[in-house]
Amino acid sequence: MNTDTLFELVLFDPENTVVSLLEKRDIEFRKQPVTRQFVVAKDETIEVISTDNPEILIESLVSIFVEWLEGKQNRKLQAQLVDGSIVYIDTNDTDGVTYILKNALKVTAFDPEYNTRIRNK
Questions:
Q1: Kindly report the CA angle at 54 between 79 and 4, in degrees rounded to 5?
Q2: What is the tens place of the pLDDT at every residue in 31-41?
Q3: Which residues lie below 8 Å from residue 23, measured CB to CB, with a gap of 6+?
Q4: Strand, helix or coil for residue 51
Q5: Is residue 59 helix, strand or coil?
Q6: pLDDT tens across 49-97, in order?
Q7: Beta strands 5-12 and 104-110: pairing type?
Q8: Do 60 and 53 contact (CB within 8 A), yes or no?
Q9: Is the distance from CB of 42 to CB of 13 less than 8 angstroms?
Q10: Burial level of 32, CB count in 10 A (0-12/13-18/19+)?
Q11: Dist. CA 73–CA 46, nearest whole Å
């Protein structure tokens, strides 16, 4: 991870809705190269680039993640914090989401449609 990276975002999002929301809100990110020998579905890792004003960036990301979670039933966001703990992001607690994103090393976005795509391959 680069020093200008806010956190790593791992996507299991077959419709690329998270990436679309990031692009729509002009959130800067960098795609990581796929290092696996094979890819079973549309999974990728990106790095969210930090800005001069991380508070505004975090606020935008909270909005994006809440919108993404509410967009389809059973979507999940999991975060690994700097202390190594694993937590889930809940749409009902924006203050909690803000705290999580400020302390996140990695966030994983998982859309259950991912499982459907794997089974249908």
A1: 75
A2: 987 665 655 55
A3: none
A4: coil
A5: helix
A6: 998 888 999 999 999 999 999 998 889 999 999 999 999 998 888 899 9
A7: parallel
A8: no
A9: yes
A10: middle
A11: 24
pTM (predicted TM-score): 0.83
Q: What does the alpha-carbon distance between residue 57 and residue 29 come to, in Å, rounded to a whole number? A: 12
E-strand ranges in the chain read 5-12, 29-31, 43-49, 76-81, 86-88, 104-110
| CA 4-79-66 angle, 5° bins | 95
Mean pLDDT of the chain: 86
If one counts every other C-beta atom within 10 angstroms of the C-beta of residue 11, the result is 21
CA distance 114 to 111: 6
Helix, strand or coil, per DSSP, at residue 83: coil
